[in-house]
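Continued from yesterday's entry.
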Amino acid sequence: MFFKRVPQVPAREWETWVQENDAVVLDVREPNEWAMGSLKGSQKVQLARLPSALGSLDTGRPILVVCRSGNRSQHAARFLADQGFESVANLTGGLRALGMAV
């Protein structure tokens, strides 16, 4: 299986990237992790439910995918890119890189 490469957005640049690209932040963690905090305004879809939630995502806007460490979000971003989403990026190091206790 071939996975497309997705851009990596460093933690210190995430807000700028989201603003400059009018992007959606997609949090692919689990509900118990969301309860510990998330980025303001983020859309929440568990990684396991992402395939069935594709129709709820705005294909016309860039997406910055986030998780705790950057691993699940990397998989999710590649999946979205393979599904035809044109502008998808991963938050390098995840929310931990932002200093969030998640």
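--- second protein ---
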Amino acid sequence: MPGVKRTKPIWPEALGEPPLIEASREMPVEAQVLMIVTIALTVFGQLMVYSASSAYAMTHAEFGFDSLYFIKNGLVYTGAGLALMICFIFVPATWLRRLAPAVFLVALGALIAVQVPGVGVSVNGAARWLAVGPLTLQPSEFAKVGVLLIVAAVLASRRRPLATLRQLLLPVGLIVGVVSLLIMLQPDLGTTLAIAIMVFALLIASGARVILLTQVLVSGLALGAALITIAPYRRDRIFAFIDPWGQSADGAYQVVQALIAIGSGGIFGVGLGGSVQKVNFLPEAHTDMIFAVIGEELGLVGAILTVGLFAVFAWAGYTIAANAVDPFQRLLAAGATALVTGQAIVNLGAVMGILPLTGIPLPLISYGSSSRMIVLALVGMLIAISREPRAVAVDEPRFDGAGSSPRSTRSRVKANA
């Protein structure tokens, strides 16, 4: 074909002979869909943050809040996140692997700095933030990206998939263990859980053996149970999850108020801005529990729309991962998608009482500065990967030795130049 560039990409030996590459300048449909969904979630999130926070801000004027405080603050971080997204879109995806060690080390240093007295910023007894000029950043959010990049690079460098716990422990287990320990010192079980979901998805995408995945899952559940047992407030959350209505005045108060909000919305909701629960009853209405406000104000229709947008996000992200030729880029795309959609599933499940509360925000919708910046940066990486060589089935006729008609086809790979 004229104007077609064909090469052999880097390809794991375990997958057999690498396919050919065809070049095209078209942006894949999945990347366009991902961009549209991300913008929709971001705009929708800003609107719902304003609706959920304005009453709270006005009733807490002693902290210097006004009705627009959270939306104005959120717009600053959203702007920074969009700038990161645009930068990553135009950065060649091949550079991301080179950046992995540096990003991980910076994130690790920031996690350590949080524990230094006078450097880390504590809120409600949790030391999770760093003050950078007028901005307050949460290093654990950046640690998610650092772990994603370095683990994807390590797994992509292997010629064969991981098969034993010993192979997993060095260096992947060590990397994840050190980062998780630093995050648990804050303490922040929710972020640790998000990283665990992401790394497990990376192991699946890398082709790790089923027996190893089973061992990791069992070990993770056992460790999670131990972490819950040693912390009384975490135990209370489990008991509240088991019997929320029996503890509606204590540990399950937040969940019960969220369920009341969702149930009050009916099919079409009470109208944007009309929530009663957000004013006097529902804690963290503009952060972790914002889906309850969506359910009350926009009803079942708004709730389904929210879930649907995340479902489309998952389809677009995993399609980009499935079509990626380079092993590192494939793993990076799969891990980034799992990180965003995994957090969405955990948050939605917690608000609806299907899962225990973990403190994980709803990506791009909940009020959260560092979280929104990181998700937008990951979207930029996904779009950058979609513009690299990608796997697409293309019919190629094959002839037998006698020169007869085509009898079979083989798979090629199309690349976006």
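The beta strands are 21-24, 120-123, 126-132, 135-137, 389-391, 413-416. The mean pLDDT is 83. Will compare against the first tomorrow.
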